[in-house]
Amino acid sequence: MQVLVLGAGVVGVTSAWYLAKAGHEVTIIDRQVDVALETSYGNAGQISPGYSAPWAGPGIPLKAVKWLMQDLAPFMISGKEVDAQTLGWMTKMLSNCTENAYHTNKGRMVRLAEYSRDCFIDLRKELDIHYDERSKGTLQLFRTDKQVKDSKKDISVLEETGVNFQVLDVDGCVEYEPALAHVREKIVGGLRLPGDETGDCFKFTNALADECRKLGVKFVMKTEVLGINAQGDEITSITTSRGEMTADSYVVALGSYSTPVLSKIGLKVPVYPIKGYSLTLPILDESRAPTSTVMDETYKVAVTRFDDRIRVGGTAEIASYNKELEAKRKANVAFVVGDLFPGGGDIEHAEFWTGLRPMTPDGTPILGETKYSNLFLNTGHGTLGWTMSLGSAKYLADVISQKTPDIDSEGLSVARYA
Hints:
By secondary structure, this protein is an alpha/beta fold. The protein has helices at residues 10-21, 60-68, 84-95, 99-126, 145-161, 170-176, 201-214, 258-263, 330-340, 385-400; strands spanning 2-6, 25-29, 46-47, 75-77, 138-142, 166-168, 189-193, 197-198, 218-220, 225-231, 234-240, 243-245, 249-252, 272-282, 293-296, 301-305, 309-318, 351-359, 366-369, 375-379. The strands form 4 sheets. Strands 4, 5, 6, 7, 14, 15, 16, 17 and 18 form a 9-stranded mixed beta sheet that branches. A 6-stranded mixed beta sheet has the order 9-2-1-13-20-19, with helices on one face. A 3-stranded antiparallel beta sheet has the order 10-11-12, with no helix packed on it. A hairpin with a 5-residue loop joins β19 and β20. The radius of gyration is 21 Å and the shape is globular.
């Protein structure tokens, strides 16, 4: 079967990998000159199945109001960018801020993320692939006793889903992240997820793209998707900047840009671009740098160790499709790495980056079938695109190949929004 994959980020490339492994003839198209040059380029560097949780949850509306009034706010709204799509998405997200919805959504996300983690393990056994990878877990760091108390809700879901975790005091945090000894007075404890991993998503995606080429996958770059053409319940072609392209089946893996493309054929998917920022710092002093990922619960910023760099990612900004790199947004992520790991990295020579996270209002990505018999979705992964990439792609390839997926499909398709 000929399959055309729209989008060459980590989600598109992993989709192509599993589809090619299943024996399909695969072509990827993307508007960029190479793979992983948008949201997959500068993300926080985490593969965090244990940290998979929806942003929508009990108490979040009140927290969001408080965050908006902080000097170093983890959440921001750019008023000039608020439109009908933004308001509609925010309304849907608010409707998911209940105990029942949070429990359901987190369960779906953990199910997919844990499966994806297993796929990463299998992939490394199959391929000699390197991307500054580390398997030393994620440490969710608490600065207040209230954060420790609030973490019990997440712990209950981790227990139900069988995710391994460790509750740590200050000494325990320092044991796993020795550099925190320099700032131990600033923390009260942490929740460690030993099954989580780290690495450079950009390096990973490029390495896997090379493996895809060995399987015959074609990459057609500098090609913009202008429209999807349908007749009845089938997609007939894709209109691109290079002309019409056809296949037997089509996969939309366009991240935040899935929404406007799919709306033209009557598919309403609530995938909204949440703007995030990152810094990438050269390491100055390894003894003052993290060994894996530390997630600062107060500022919602992740500090991740690569081989010779530190990646700092955070901030959620509602700004529609605005990708301007505003210098004032640098303060939040820069503060956290300087506060927790002073002297560890060279902030003065950091690369500052922004990208659009494709968020659904309930946190779970949208995978699988649509009302069109030969159109499939792999989008809406939010901050967990790399974490869920392999599991989502393997699931999708099984659906397209008419094989029974390895995990329960409940709640994963666009049908949940019907």
